Structures are given as C-alpha cells and as structure tokens.
Amino acid sequence: MTDMRATGYQVFRELLPGVLPDDADSIGDGGFGDELLEIGIESVFARLWGRAGLSRRDRSLVTLGILIALRATDELQFHVQIARNNGLTEDEIAEVIYHSSGYAGFPAASSARTVAREVLQGK
C-alpha cells in the first residue's frame, strides 16, 4: 500500500470509525468504477483531510457548506456523521444549513435539512 493510500485509509477510519473493517485494504466491492473510491481515498482523505492547515472540525464546516451548495446529498449523509465525529453539535450543523440557505438557496438547504435529520435520528 502506498503512503498516500495508507494515510487515506487511516484518515477515513478516523473520520468514520467502524465503517471499514481494520483489516480491509480496499473500500470497493469489485464492481464497476471501484477505482473512483481509491482516488477519493488518496486525493480527498489523504491529501485534503490529512493536511494540517485546518482542524478537522473546520474542514467539516467547510465541507458541509460545499456539499449543501452542490446538493450532493449522498456525500452529505456521510459528512454529517463525520461532522458529529469531529465535534460539531446538532445545533451547529443546523446553523450551517440555515446559513447555506442564504448563499446556496432554500431548496438546497431544505434538502440538506432532510438528509441531516435522517442521519442525526439514526435512520
């Protein structure tokens, strides 16, 4: 395993404990496009989340805002949980959603609210 790949898996496990077994060396299931997941492990989790320039808590705030603006609800599901693991409270996550409504639009914020509510209620 390359250093970036190993770092990416370490960071992923820290951000989402229990999602990936400790002995797993691949995130994919062998299906179509699995390499995209490996690219994400190296480029997003190792190279971005592994940087020292911002705290993980701050990175969660930024990431939530970006995902809300993009209406990337699939990724938002994971990142709401990551935000909780990085110390954001439910009230702070709600504030990110409220604040996003002014910049990303009400429909994007409303979709984010639905996703966050499901994640936070454990559905």
UniProtKB/TrEMBL annotation:
Pfam family, one: CMD
The Carboxymuconolactone decarboxylase-like domain, residue ranges: 45-118
Domain of life, source organism: Bacteria
One Gene Ontology molecular-function label: peroxiredoxin activity
Protein name listed in UniProt: Carboxymuconolactone decarboxylase-like domain-containing protein
Species for this entry: Mycolicibacterium vanbaalenii
